[in-house]
Amino acid sequence: MTCRAPDHLAFLFDGLSRLPAPRSIAELGLDASGEAALSAWATRAGSAHLRNDPAGFGLAFLACATLVAREKLGDHQLWPHVFEWFRGKPAATLFAGQQPGIDLKSAIECAARRFELRHGFGRGDDEHRWYLTVLLQCGLTRPALARLPDWLAGAPTWRAVDLLLHDTELRSESFRAMFEHLRAIRLGWETDLPPSPWLAGELRDAARLAARARLSLGTAAATGDTPSIRIAAGHGAELRFRIPL
């Protein structure tokens, strides 16, 4: 990234600039102060801000949408939740109904490309590119944890999850590591889930519990491209297992 972000986006820009590309907003591990800064930004940022700085506006909007998706996104119902979060704020005028308008979509794409975020542009049909881009920023969501036992048992995952795990261009090693530990917990090989930026706040404990739910479904078999996980066996020994992704 060679551009200079506006001051109100400095905490986003500085964090993203330290991450290898492609990158996702979840990898910033936004804390309460970051969330508060985004809420403050949303109270004043509208169409004039978008026209003056499409990439900066799109980045901040994507960060807000990521926070909303993390808590609300279940069965492909994203934009109504995002619109509700922006209701009464200046950016609400940039929606067409409860969907992003043309200028807002353009700003999202501009930000994704400028800041080298993982995105869905060039993948899939037109109407799902922006949805996929937001999902690639957060990975797992609180409502999606209800599906985690099925995914760990081998059921097809959401497309964004599959891309973060397996795609040669978009895969994330930190996301894969988090998923690997969830599988190990399901198998009883681990009891604690290490901290991960993909599982912010209470989401970490919720994911750990979800990994052990409905054990009767089983756990998918290992695949050839799965990284190994090391578990201490005592007396200096080390056991190595392969966890399916």
Features:
11 helices; two-stranded antiparallel sheet; 245 residues; mainly alpha; disordered C terminus; two-stranded antiparallel ribbon
Please mark out the parts with pLDDT under 50 across 5 or more consecutive residues, or reply none: 1-5, 228-245
Report the strand count: 4
Class based on secondary structure composition and strand pairing: mainly alpha
- The CA-CA distance between the termini, in Å, is 31 Å
Helix content: 40-55%
The largest beta-sheet arranges its strands as: 1-2
Fraction in beta strands:
5-15%
What is the string of helix and strand elements? Answer: HHHHHEEHHHHHHEE
Structure, described:
This protein has 245 residues and is mainly α. It is 45% helix and 7% strand. The chain contains eleven helices and four strands, in the order H-H-H-H-H-E-E-H-H-H-H-H-H-E-E. The strands form two sheets. The chain has a two-stranded antiparallel ribbon. Helix 2 crosses helix 4 (54-72), helix 4 crosses helix 6 (102-114) and helix 7 packs across helix 9. The two termini are 31 Å apart. Mean pLDDT is 88; it is low at 1-5 and 228-245.
